[in-house]
Each structure stands twice: as structure tokens, then as C-alpha cells.
Amino acid sequence: QVQLVESGGGLVQAGGSLSLSCAASGPAFINYAMGWYRQAPGKERELVAAVTSGYTTTYADSVKGRFTISRDNTKKTVYLRMNSLEPEDTAVYYCAARYGGMLYNVHSVSVWGQGTLVTVSS
């Protein structure tokens, strides 16, 4: 199965933008649904956005219109572009993968990245 490494987290002011990347290694990346989850202090891990192997996307209501997920199968990389960031977006962001299908709750994930911290200051 794939292995995932995130990059791109950091500190940004409210209203700013940030992009995350997740590089995958291993076979058959094109067959994996890929996604981003986040976990804020004291809260459960939640789905932010996901994209299937067929490029169907889904977003949490809280990020619709502000975040965009994309994938580049030639680079085995999935991206999360985050615009109009809010302090409530502060969390550790995790890249996730599932062979086939779509990503939903945390139980649908088969592979996790190590996480990258995004901090949005007010």
C-alpha cells in the first residue's frame, strides 16, 4: 500500500492562504481515493476534503468555497489549497488514503500520513 508524507503547514494570518501537499510512494496511487482530515485540540478528527480515483470530490460544509482538493497522478501527489483561512481552521491536517471508493469518516481510511500543523492567527 502507499505511504504518505505531508508538507506545507505553518502559521498564517486570518484571511490568508496556505497550500498543503501530500506525496505518496508505493504502487497503484491512481486507484486510491485521497483526502485530507484535520484534528483540532480537544476535537475529533474530521474529513475536510476528498477526491476519488475518478476525480469526484467532496468537502466538509465548513470549507466549501474556500478549500480546493486536487491530485496529480503523474507526481503521486494530492494537494489542498486553503483560502480565506479562519482561526477555526487551526488543526493538525492529515493526508489519508483508501484503495478504491471514497473517503468518509475516519473508519474509511486505510493509510494515514504523519500530519502537518496549520495555525491561523486572528
> How large a portion of the residues is in β-strands, by DSSP E?
over 45%
**Separation of the first and last Cα atoms:** 40 Å
Structural class by SSE content: mainly beta
Counting DSSP H or I runs of 4 or more residues, the number of helices is 0
Q: Please estimate the helix content.
A: under 10%
Overall, the morphology is globular
The average pLDDT is 96
Taken in chain order, the helices and strands follow as EEEEEEEEEEE
The assembly state of the depicted protein chains is single chain
- How many beta strands in the DSSP annotation? 11
Radius of gyration: 13 Å
Strand count, sense and barrel status of the largest sheet are: 7 strands, mixed
Uncertain parts: none
Spell out the key features of this protein:
single chain; 7-stranded mixed β-sheet; 4-stranded antiparallel β-sheet; globular; 0% helix; mainly beta; 122 residues
What's a quick, concise take on this entry?
This protein is mainly β. It has strands spanning 3-7, 10-13, 18-25, 32-39, 46-51, 57-59, 67-72, 77-82, 91-99, 111-112, 116-121. A hairpin with a 6-residue loop joins strand 4 (32-39) and strand 5.
